[in-house]
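Subject: mismatched residue count in predicted assembly?

I count 561 residues in my input, but I want to confirm that the predicted structure covers every chain. Input:
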Amino acid sequence: MNTGDAKKPKLGVQAATKIYHTASGDLLALDRCSLDVSANEIVSIVGPSGCGKTTLLWSMSGLHSLTSGEIRLDGKAITGPHPDIGIVFQEANLLPWRNLDANIRFPFEIKGEKPDRAWIAHLLNRVGLDGFGGKFPRELSGGMQQRAAIVRALALKPSVLLMDEPFGALDSFTREEMNRLVEEIWLDTKTTIVFITHSIEEAIFLSDRVVVLSARPGRVAKEYRVPFARPRSLEIMATKEVFDLTNRIKMDIVGERTRPKAPERPSAEIVRIRP
Amino acid sequence: MSGGDAIPEFSKSKSGAKSGDGHEVSLTNLSAFASGPGIRSGKEVAAILAVAVIIIGGIELALRLFHVPLYIMPPPSSIAYALFDEFPLIAPHLGYTLVELLSGFAIGAVIGLVLAAVITQFPFAEKIVAPYILLLVTTPMLALVPLLILRFGFGYTPRIIAVALAAGPMVMINAATGFRRVDSAKIALARSYGASTLQIFWKIRAPMALPMILVGLMIGAIFGLLTAVGAEMVGGGFGLGNRLTTYSSMIQMPQFFAVVLILSTLGILIYVLFFLIGKKWASWEA
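Triage response: the counts match. Full output below for your records.
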């Protein structure tokens, strides 16, 4: 499932539009938002708060339905939660009445499958949670909880992993550590990852591509390719290229109205999708 | 949090590290006894026993010194003697009361739990039945006992019905509070794996409601005990409540207080039982 042909996107978002009907009127959260994610790619989505990042991700997961538009996985439209898509939620979202082992077993219980013990042990070892299986979420630090959540999301071997601001609640050191862990896992599994974050640095460090959404209603405003080879070291974060790219994206997000035209810089390749 | 506020939280860890909140609202906090820092030392045990001896001994001494008549307040020693002496006679009545309590509570709790689970699934239906539930919760079911006796006679039936009527609404209202605590992220998690409504109920909603369900069961059981004893006092020739009226009418105060002692012990046992269940099954609740 992992290897589609190169032209066909792994996950395609086509003119996704989402209107929330609220008491105070209709709210256009996404407006004809289109985005293709190739197989084995890591794509980050950044944007001003309230721009519909999470709506977009939840739509990709099949948890939210779209008002119009389509999400395609391997070319097939998805209409609901799909077993090939794993999700890592904000703030770990572990079940507090279950210990780690039982939390990671949860997806298998729902599916009525036998847990793949060897794979789970491999993942736990990968994220450094060996021997913590009997612990309850409240006994673990935020970082450890989020590691466990990643293991849970990967337990069913999804080919796409959607991550919704997974490290937003963590301190910056833990966050860097987690970013490296995500890259390691990617090198290991080559899972296609869509990553939502507030942190531009995090987006750049992790991604092959950073997608900037416009303020509400959310559309893809810009895309930037991040041209560093993997595994990346934290040192790239100190290079001029990353510095410039960070500023550019920051301008896209916060300076959208005040400075409509950011000055051109040669350091990063710019793909302008929609004016 | 109707009714739940007065109930001490289940202590969340064996380490005895407790959060400050929840303690101010509790009338009595058993966790202070049950989960102190480690096991109580011999010194502490000795101090607790000494205080108990001083209090009980003091009462005994004062009552004898001032020649308080037996029918006003019997001394502790005579109560203890009566408890041992009369126990073979009281024991069957304890059994009757337990039968009423357990069967009435079981019926009430099951109906209460099922209703709570069903009704919280349909918010609109909930709004319609809410006033009637409030009526059931606030009406002292003891008031219905004469009516029930008229209809069902002096046997177990009216008492069991009264206990069920007293316990059921308490279980229901607390369980409903628990079931209403929805965490949309956790439900989304389950849905992302394709969970059915039933799976979401058993794997997410029910465990999340468990702490409140236990609180409801505990309050329900204690209300059930009250109602059982009250119903026995109203009519019928058996049960601990009947013993109370009998002994008091015969001015057998030591025996009367022996029964009261048994009733308080029952109440404490109910409390401790649910406390321990909560510690085992709902200790995740912070």
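The domain at 1-84+160-168+188-275 of chain A is CATH 3.40.50.300 (Rossmann fold). Marking this ticket as 'not a bug'.
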